[in-house]
Each structure stands twice: as structure tokens, then as C-alpha cells.
Specification:
The chain has a single domain, classed as Immunoglobulin-like (Sandwich). It is built from four helices and 17 strands. The protein has a nine-stranded mixed β-barrel with strand order 3-4-8-10-7-6-14-17-12. A two-stranded antiparallel ribbon has the order 1-2. Strand 11 and strand 12 form a beta hairpin.
Length: about 260
């Protein structure tokens, strides 16, 4: 693995060539200089987390020598507490919009694998970025659509992006092991964390998700976090939808029980 240093050269991450402290110092310095410096710094450090993926642009990509592991999250309640603020209204300008469509089938109840279609709209216009999926919980990753992006390709468990424009859109498909059976026979569908982060702050983000339940063996029970202003959850037939608009770090859990309950 490699990490670009302040000089622009590529060094080994094993030697901690791009530690978090150095990145923050460089970003703060750029942020305080000029409007152009602020824009460059913002794009360099800003992270857009998806489920189960992440977009990072700039000096150090996630998964390298940093102390920030977006997938190391013990529980939704622990992560969301104190780091999540739902917004009744979004800013009067486009924000990153993350869309998920998940399909649960009879086979999903046996092995935990669901089908995922994921789209990103209003991506940050940067020269280089990547969408990183959880290596152990993702397979059959494919690019379905890439508009306003100079080049997009699959590399291992990542989608690499070059020359992302202002009106860019990216859609991918994959299988995701996101469904977990509980001891009482119920199931949890966990998604996240979702976030947009810069230095020690968070930026607004919108997440839309639909879960298509294509099995008669499940019924939706409830959701974490609880529905509230800025987080709407509803059923339409067998399908479950939610819309979230927020700043911070969001993990969602949808709980399903056996159809006979």
C-alpha cells in the first residue's frame, strides 16, 4: 500500500509516511490560506462513507496507515451517540446523495448475502478518489453506470475514480453480507457507517434506502435510530424505505421477524 506525502512522492504506508497528524496540519494550513486552499484542503480530506463503502480523495486513502477505521464500529447506539445530528432541512445547495437498493431473498436468510445496487450523486469534483468496500462482506462488485467521470474501474474490493466532474453519478452492483440472524430467530440488516468528514467536523449528507423483501418468511419490525425529524422510515407493501438527512456518523439497523410473529 502507498500514501502520497507532502512532496507528492509515493512512500510506503508501513513507514507511516502519511500519519494522521501530518495530514491534519497540512489541511489546516491550506484551509487558512486562500479560498482556493480551503477548497483544495476540503477535497483532500473529505470522506463520504456508504454502506458498506467509503469514498476518499486526496493524500491518504482509507485502509492505509491511519487511525480511522470506518468499519470498526461495535454498535449503532454506541457510534451514533454524540456524533449524529439529523437535519430537518438540508442546505440550499446540492449535497452528496447516497442511494441503496437492497434485495432480501429466501437464500439471504440462509447465508446472510443480499443483493445491493448503490448510486452516488453530487460527488465531490476531484482528480482522484475511490469507493472502498468491506473486503470480507462484498463480492461480485461491478460498475453499472459512470457519468461525468473521466475513468472508473474495479480494483480488488474498490472502485477507482479519475477526474470526477461536478455532475458526476456512479452506480455499482454487488452482493453484500449484511443480514444477520439473531438467537430468537429474528434478523438484523445493518448498514453504515455513512458520513462526510473533514478534519474534526462533519458535513451534511442524504441517504435514501429501499429494502425489497422478496421472501414471505420475514416481516419488518422496527428501526434504529427511531424515526424522527430528518429520519423517516415507512413500509410500502413488503418493502421498507428510509430517508435520512444528517451531519455526523450514521449506522442504521432494520429488524425483521419471522412472518408468523
Amino acid at each position: 500500500m502507498t500514501c502520497a506525502t507532502a512532496s507528492g512522492k509515493v512512500a510506503s504506508a508501513a513507514h507511516d509516511a502519511c500519519p494522521r497528524t501530518e495530514r491534519l496540519v497540512r489541511a489546516r494550513a491550506a484551509f487558512r490560506t486562500t479560498p482556493r486552499g480551503r477548497t483544495t484542503a476540503l477535497r483532500a480530506i473529505l470522506g463520504l462513507l456508504a454502506v458498506p463503502s467509503l469514498i476518499l480523495a486526496g493524500p491518504c486513502a482509507w485502509g492505509q496507515a491511519t487511525d480511522f477505521d470506518p468499519f470498526d464500529t461495535p454498535s449503532a447506539a454506541h457510534v451514533n451517540e454524540g456524533q449524529l445530528h439529523f437535519l430537518s432541512e438540508l442546505p440550499n445547495k446540492p449535497v452528496h446523495h447516497h442511494r441503496n437498493e437492497i434485495v432480501i431473498t429466501d437464500a439471504s436468510l440462509d447465508d446472510g448475502w443480499v443483493q445491493l445496487r448503490q448510486c452516488h450523486e453530487h460527488l465531490d469534483p476531484v482528480p482522484n478518489s475511490q469507493v472502498v468496500f468491506n473486503r470480507d462482506r462484498t463480492r461480485d462488485l461491478r460498475i453499472e453506470q459512470a457519468e461525468g467521470i473521466g475513468r472508473a474501474w474495479i480494483e480488488g474490493h474498490t472502485v477507482q475514480l479519475r477526474d470526477t466532474g461536478h455532475a458526476a453519478r456512479l452506480c455499482v452492483t454487488a452482493a453484500s453480507r449484511a443480514l444477520a440472524r439473531l438467537p430468537d430467530g429474528a434478523f438484523n440488516l445493518r448498514n453504515g457507517p455513512f458520513l462526510r468528514r473533514f478534519l474534526d467536523g462533519y458535513f451534511p449528507m442524504r441517504v435514501s434506502q429501499i429494502v425489497r423483501v422478496e421472501t414471505a418468511r420475514l416481516r419488518f419490525r422496527d428501526a434504529t435510530p427511531a424515526p424522527q425529524a430528518g429520519f423517516r422510515v415507512w413500509r410500502q407493501g413488503m418493502d421498507v424505505h428510509y430517508e435520512a438527512q444528517f451531519e455526523g456518523r450514521l449506522i442504521t439497523i432494520l429488524r425483521f421477524g419471522p412472518a408468523g410473529d
